[in-house]
Amino acid sequence: MDGTVLVADDDRTIRTVLTQALTRAGCKVHATASLMTLMRWVEEGKGDLVISDVVMPDGNGLEALPRIARERPGLPVIVISAQNTIMTAIQAAEADAYDYLPKPFDLPDLMKRAARALELKRRAQVVPKVVESTRPEGTDLPLVGRTAAMQALYRLVARVMNADLPVMIMGESGTGKSLIAKAIHDFSDRRTLPFVVAQAADLLGADGPSSLLARVKGGSLVFDEVGDYDDETQGRIVRMLDALPDPAPRIMATTQVDLGALMEAGRFRQDLYYRLGGVTLAVPALRERVEDIPLLAEHFLGRAERDGLGMRRFSAEAMGLVRAYAWPGNVRQLENTVRRLVVTASEEEITRAEVEFVLGNQPAVEPLRGAGGEGEKLSASIARHLRRYFDLHGGNLPPPGLYDRILAEMEAPLIEIALDATGGNQAKCADLLGINRNTLRKKITDLDIQVTRRRKLM
Length: 458
Prior knowledge:
Keywords: Activator, ATP-binding, Cytoplasm, DNA-binding, Nitrogen fixation, Nucleotide-binding, Phosphoprotein, Repressor, Transcription, Transcription regulation, Two-component regulatory system. One of its GO terms (biological process) is regulation of DNA-templated transcription. This protein is globular. It has four domains: 4-121, Response regulator (Rossmann fold); 148-282, P-loop containing nucleotide triphosphate hydrolases (Rossmann fold, 3-Layer(aba) Sandwich), CATH 3.40.50.300; 287-361, Helicase, Ruva Protein, domain 3 (Orthogonal Bundle), CATH 1.10.8.60; 399-457, Homeodomain-like (Arc Repressor Mutant, subunit A, Orthogonal Bundle), CATH 1.10.10. β10, α9 and β11 form a beta-alpha-beta unit. The model is unreliable at 125-140, 361-375 and 453-458 (pLDDT under 50). It is of the alpha/beta class and 458 residues long. Strands 2-1-3-6-7 form a five-stranded parallel sheet, with helices on both faces. It has a five-stranded parallel sheet with strand order 9-10-11-8-12, with helices on both faces. It is built from 19 helices and 14 strands. It has helices spanning 12-24, 35-43, 65-71, 86-94, 107-122, 148-160, 177-186, 208-216, 231-241, 259-264, 270-276, 293-306, 316-324, 330-344, 352-359, 378-391, 402-421, 426-433, 437-446, and strands spanning 4-8, 28-32, 49-53, 55-56, 59-60, 77-81, 99-102, 167-170, 195-198, 220-223, 250-255, 279-282, 313-314, 349-350. The termini are far apart. α18 packs across α19 (437-446).
């Protein structure tokens, strides 16, 4: 690499690492912890590339981008930020940053991007576009994540915001599909126009489609869970899309199911599939981005505090359990759980026992659909679920206390089923299990098992 790089970050370690790496690569480096100093260097004509943090002691790096573009047209800026949210990626795109990387960043990856930026600068191929951000104030979307899957999603969202293409948003229930659609609208050029979410019922009747178009005007129209629409409703959408007015609205759709598979099975119209699938955004399930769970939990704690529910924090053991849980309801379930914990916690610090109580006896690992079989041994089934539990943590180990946690998960259903089989008779249940009756009572209490006397079915 060849050129002068201006580095602005309030973290001394990051400044040192970047200075050493860029110097070894052949660059000259000026590093500072001050945004004011960075802007002075830019105005003096120094630098062929800027690498800047967002939150600085004396300002915001993103807000400085339009000024940099005015002062030095063609000067590329790489934004690095610990604010791992969709808003940061979108703001960086709106402000015409050359690139954006979340912290912690991969140094070799950053060096490659810096080399490309310097090469483009040298060839004078970087054409700046000054964009004054008019994003909605007070936006508080739970679209937080530092994992590669979420960062890739954020980048794609930022690229398609103003593209004249329909958008298909796929993901399980509770992953945030509707939030992605709203973010695309709120940060796009259509932000001042209507945002309309359509259900199948909105398309009924002779004037259903025309009424929808009258409501949305040139804004954004979202078909919610379009995979659930019947064939007649799908046909209405096709005819509506073929006769869109001018200006046409932005078309988006959400779905929990694989529309391609539905189409091949003859349950989704091919013509509608290709009309809706201009760009596909896949929103990962929470179990596929375990590292983001603590970030989201802290985000929801902050939101609850702003809503006046009180200030809370998780103990290390409590957060370990939150991180290890499978969250079949995804982000929506996590938010509801955190808000409930904020209300019910007895102290400022949320304990592991309080998390266990709220989660109840739900399994910590979501079962694999269609796996196993009637002939599968119990040990094989347990091993399969345990292996999945370890896999959910990627290359990291699960939180400490695994032995007791797994035993508790196995004990609860065993005792519940045994109680049911003995009609709720604890003496018979203890005998069946081969344990002391007092031991059984203690386990029922510790595991919070609800006991009702049942009549045994013969």
